From TrEMBL:
EC id: 3.6.-.-
Comment on bound cofactor: Binds 1 potassium ion per subunit.
NCBIfam families reported for this sequence: mnmE_trmE_thdF, PRK05291.1-3, small_GTP
Biological process annotations from GO: tRNA methylation; tRNA wobble uridine modification
Cofactor(s) named in the record: K(+)
Residues annotated as signal peptide: none
Gene: mnmE
Binding residues for GTP: 233-238, 252-258, 277-280
The protein, known as: tRNA modification GTPase MnmE
Task performed by this protein: Exhibits a very high intrinsic GTPase hydrolysis rate. Involved in the addition of a carboxymethylaminomethyl (cmnm) group at the wobble position (U34) of certain tRNAs, forming tRNA-cmnm(5)s(2)U34.
Annotated family: Belongs to the TRAFAC class TrmE-Era-EngA-EngB-Septin-like GTPase superfamily. TrmE GTPase family.
Chain sites annotated for binding Mg(2+): S237, T258
Length: 468
């Protein structure tokens, strides 16, 4: 029998607020069933088995007023999300009904749940580890096929298992080192140093692999920022609009009117792109405001993960385009796509000249007409290929780290593992080796919550919404 640790029963609306066909009010805790039965037409609920549904009315016993016809889903500890007794009341989705139901349950002994408290209980009652609990929030927030897939894998414990395996291997060695320490003066070596060095190299390799996967994980979770830059009138706003399929940016034929940055997100093939439209680039800015705009464009390119350099095919020669791209990305290591716009106006020989000039180079060239909505699929495919190519190259591990907290913990672990490795190479004392190994283990343990503090838990679970 699983021991749950909370004596109070919490309640919250678990579906979004507002009108809907149904709303679900959820209770969790030792009195969940008794509290519900007190206001439910079927008193036999207290005797009912777990995983059963019960149709009836909710009534205020003090006034006799019927509040709603509902279906009660019953889960008995430990076979529930929180491992406690859980009741889910499906009522009609009106704010008024929900308020009445909540008030009734609160009057009969439940307490309003804090943000993330259901998931926190699931973690503290041992239903899932911390990485899995965090995946619940990610899964709820997932808005693309890939972020959904990664969150689901984490929720199902894939990442946690990998970490537990790593820790288990290190723990053995840590124990042997600690044993040596217990013998103090006696200069014994239980832990085989060569074996330890080999194990360390292996574990550190896995940790670094996971860390590298964060690059892709971050892209999957937070999207990739792509700056669209180019001369005024190249068609940046038109392209952005075409990509977003809605008229957000101000399109105008007067050069240099897009002075502020316009950002928007669009999901392409499961990846989220955040496009930033910039002020037009120009060698001799006509006025001061625009000069500032150009400065800021360079600044934005520096922060971006990718650059789309857009140009009007009939305006610039291939060599000019290449020179401008180079100037914009000088000293930066970021993928660039050259995008030639207005194919509808360009001569066939111009197009051929560009294809020839870019054919052998590193920078992919996409030709399209933003205004005529032609060639956008080619651009979308090139964008996705660019991200997948650079991020996946670095991702050997099947598990993808998406959480900043996990990435930080992995960095700490990697640093301490490196210190143990150096320590072994330079014959450092057992005490120092053992200390670094302990730190590395602690960092790995923080990810799954084998080691956790109240502060950490609070900061994680308060990011959830109420009812989760
Ligand atoms: P920006 O200054 O780079 O943001 O350029 P805009 O998006 O404001 O476009 C400048 C002008 O070029 C507008 O009049 C657009 O309608 C026009 N334009 C954009 N794309 C195309 C295209 O593919 N073909 C043609 N013919 N005109 C285009």
């Amino acid at each position: 029998m699983v021991q749950t640790i909370f004596s109070d029963t919490i309640v919250a609306l678990s579906t979004p607020p507002g009108a809907g066909a149904l709303a679900v009010v959820r209770l969790s805790g030792p009195a969940a069933v008794v509290i519900t039965a007190a206001v439910f037409s079927k008193k036999s609920l207290t005797q009912a088995a777990g995983h059963t549904l019960h149709y009836g009315t909710l009534r205020d016993p003090d006034t006799g007023e019927i509040i709603d016809e509902v279906v009660v889903a019953l889960y008995r500890a430990p076979r529930s999300f929180t491992r406690e007794d859980v009741v889910e009341i499906s009522c009609h989705g009106s704010d008024y009904v929900v308020r009445q139901v909540l008030a009734l349950l609160l009057r009969h002994g439940a307490r309003l749940a804090e943000a993330g408290e259901f998931t926190k209980r699931a973690f503290l009652n041992g239903a899932m580890d911390l990485a899995q609990a965090e995946a619940v929030a990610d899964l709820i927030a997932a808005d693309s096929a890939l972020s959904h897939k990664v969150a689901l894998n984490q929720l199902r414990g894939g990442f946690s298992q990998e970490l537990r395996d790593l820790r288990a291997r290190l723990v053995q060695f840590a124990a042997l080192l600690e044993l040596e320490l217990d013998f103090g003066e006696e200069d014994v070596e239980f832990a085989d140093r060569t074996g330890l060095a080999r194990l360390l190299a292996e574990v550190r390799g896995v940790v670094l692999g996971l860390l590298r996967s964060f690059e892709l994980g971050n892209v999957i979770k937070n999207g990739i920022t792509a700056v669209i830059a180019g001369r005024p009138n190249a068609g940046k706003s038109t392209l952005l609009n075409a990509l977003l399929r809605e008229e957000r940016a101000i399109v105008s034929a007067i050069p240099g009117t897009t002075r502020d940055f316009i950002e928007d997100e669009v999901s392409i093939d499961g990846l989220r792109f955040r496009f930033v439209d910039t002020a037009g680039l120009r060698d001799n800015p006509a006025d001061e405001v625009e000069a500032i705009g150009v400065q800021r464009t360079r600044q934005r390119v520096k922060q971006a993960a990718m650059l789309l350099y857009l140009f009007d095919l009939s305006e610039l020669a291939p060599a000019e385009v290449q020179a401008e791209m180079q100037e914009l990305t000088a000293g930066l290591d970021l993928p660039v796509l050259a995008v030639g716009n207005k194919t509808d106006l360009a001569l066939a020989e111009t197009i051929r000249a560009f294809e020839q000039a870019f054919g052998a180079g590193q920078t992919p060239l996409v030709l399209l007409s933003a205004g005529q909505n032609q060639g956008l699929e080619t651009l979308q495919a090139a964008l996705v290929a660019q991200v997948r190519g650079s991020a996946l190259e670095n991702t050997a591990s099947a598990t993808i780290v998406t959480n900043v907290r996990h990435a930080r913990a992995l960095e700490t672990a990697a640093a301490h593992l490196a210190a143990v490795q150096t320590g072994l190479d330079t014959g450092r004392g057992t005490e120092l080796l053992a200390a670094d190994l302990r730190h590395a283990l602690a960092a790995l343990g923080e990810i799954t919550g084998e080691i956790s503090s109240e502060d950490l838990l609070t900061s994680i679970f308060t990011q959830f919404c109420i009812g989760k």
